[in-house]
Amino acid sequence: MSERSYLVQKFARIPVGANHVIGYSVAGEESVVQIPELDVCFDIGRAPYFALTSNLLCLTHGHMDHLAGLAYYLSQRHFQGMRVATVLLPQALVNPVDQMLRCWRNIERQNTPYQLIGMTPDSVHQLRKDFLIRAVETHHGGTSLGFVLVSVREKLKQEFFGRPGQELAALRKQGVEIQYRVEVPLVAYLGDTAYGKVFDNPDVQNAEILLTECTFYEKDHKPRAKAGRHLHVDQLVELVLPNLKNQQIIITHVSRRTGVRKAKAILRKKIGEEKMKNILFLMDFEGSQDAGEIEEMGPPPSDTAE
Ligand SMILES: [Zn+2]
Fold it and tell me: Whole domain around residue 71: which residue ranges?
């Protein structure tokens, strides 16, 4: 067996502010997006190696190209002594996914631990005092959710500006609310979705980074978009983009029928160069200066039957 006969696959690695978006997303094949600095992975695809390091996994829906690697992700993490991952997923999927993982325990004869947390539209998973994840309803048929990572900050109310620290501490002791709560949506990931009210959600419109699908681009692919409950570029351009205020928009889940290069050209023609400035295609390895790539290799062939 030659040294490089095992899988070599390219993944996107895009720096955005203090974070990176690492991932792979091709419609029907595989979708997995990781923000390593925030310790979160959205969808798991076929469980590429980089995704194993995230302690939190958010699954958007049950299609194979988004979820196939779940058992492998959990098993590998257990095998490598990593802590039990937290998996957020639509409530309706908790049972079937639990059954699948129990089957894998029997097949593998290994007691892989896992924690599944069912989410419903607008439900919140508090990660830390200053950090939460909110589920948003998407429109992909059956049960599907998007997820927004929200930073929660406490700010001093204006009327207390300039007061000495001792005085503020005393007021706080008396039970006076001197601070107010601000939510800053950092990342919104929508998974697969048709056009719908998810795009009116303020968290989605304002997240610093928005990862949205746009699967189809050609005129005669409109029926496909409708049938598969995906976004067509005309909807993105006419209905979605005018309302978005995100610093960075990253488009995922482009169909191989069109390909990223052509998809990008079609979008650019529709909206012009200026509006393309804060839009990237996740899988665009050539066009953008911001998009990098890493080569990810599976482990070398092993003789042991782990
Ligand atoms: Zn899907």
Answer: 8-297
104 CA from centroid of ligand 1 (Å): 23
Distance CA 123, CA 91 (A): 10
pTM of the model: 0.89
70-106 per-residue burial string, b: 16 or more CB within 10 A, e: under 16: bbbbbbbbbeeeeeebbbbbbbbbeeebeeebeebbe
User: How far, in Å, is the centroid of ligand 1 from the Cα of 144?
Assistant: 9
Report yes or no on 283 lying in a domain: yes
pLDDT in tens, 267-286: 999 999 999 999 999 999 87
User: What pLDDT, on a 0 to 100 scale, did the predictor assign at position 153?
Assistant: 92
216 lies in some domain: yes
Average pLDDT value for residue range 68-84: 96
The total number of structural domains in the chain stands at: 1
- Residue 286, domain CATH: 3.60.15.10
How far, in Å, from the CA of 80 to the mean position of ligand 1?
A: 30
- Domain-located, residue 47: yes
Distance 223 CA to ligand 1 centre (A): 16
Per DSSP, the three-state class of 60 is coil
More confident residue, 35 or 289: 35
Which pLDDT score, from 0 to 100, does residue 289 have? 43
Whole-number Å distance, alpha carbon 15 to ligand 1 midpoint, is: 26
